[in-house]
Amino acid sequence: MGYRERALDLVRARGIARARDFKAAGIPLTYLKRLTDTGDLVRLGRGLYQDSAHVGEHIEHNLAEAARLVPNGVISLISALRHHELTTQLPHVVWMTIPHKGRTPNTRNLKIEVVRATGKALTAAIELVMIEGVPVPIYGVAKTVADCFKHRRQVGEDVAIEALRDALKQRKTTVSELIKYAAIDRVTSRMEPFIKAMQ
């Protein structure tokens, strides 16, 4: 099998591959330029490549790209709501939560909005979903709703309330789960009146 086939197999297996993935597989980086010139690969950003057949501007694709660019981040807030089908908003950025002392990602081609967290507020309720062959960490429904109340100044309290109402109405979470993550995010007193009004 030649370098071209090995490079294409690698990128198809990973969804989005980094230059160092090719290097680790023994594929000379000069082939990346050749493959992008021929249209077999698309360069998404510095050191990020994808099979040209799978490139799209849709939201899920952006989540996969963000997960590759920010390996210590978790998809959150409006981006997570959109993935869970709990908002009508179309986010123009990918929202991610990163560790409190984590370095702010430097991304040119993809707009990422960062919020920071520590402890359980960072690590609780992370689900891994496969998008375009990429494992994407994303917060579960109840945690995402609680996060929206925690970061209501950034996303808008109306978005948080709509998400809470829809999550309960569509039975995508339970009151006990919402209370659990509200406590982790320290927004119990903020969320409880809305939860009671919706029961």
* Rg on CA atoms, Å: 19 Å
Shape: elongated
Q: Sheet bearing the most strands, described?
A: 3 strands, antiparallel
Number of strands: 8
- Number of folding domains? 2
Share in β-strands: 15-25%
* Structural class label: alpha+beta
- What is the arithmetic mean of pLDDT? 87
CATH C-level label of the largest domain: Alpha Beta
Overview of this protein structure:
There is one protein chain. The chain has 199 residues and is an alpha+beta fold. It folds into two domains: 3-54, Arc Repressor Mutant, subunit A, CATH 1.10.10; 59-198, 2-Layer Sandwich (Beta Polymerase, domain 2), CATH 3.30.460. It is built from eleven helices and eight strands. Strand 2 and strand 3 form a beta hairpin. It is elongated and about 65 Å long.
Topology:
Elements: H1 3-14, E1 16-18, H2 19-24, H3 30-37, E2 41-45, E3 48-51, H4 59-69, E4 74-75, H5 77-83, E5 94-99, E6 112-117, H6 119-123, E7 126-131, E8 134-139, H7 141-150, H8 152-155, H9 157-169, H10 175-184, H11 188-198
Parallel strand pairs: 5-6
Antiparallel strand pairs: 1-3, 2-3, 4-5, 7-8
What keywords describe this structure?
199 residues; alpha+beta; Arc Repressor Mutant, subunit A; Beta Polymerase, domain 2; 3-stranded antiparallel β-sheet; 3-stranded mixed β-sheet; 11 helices; 49% helix
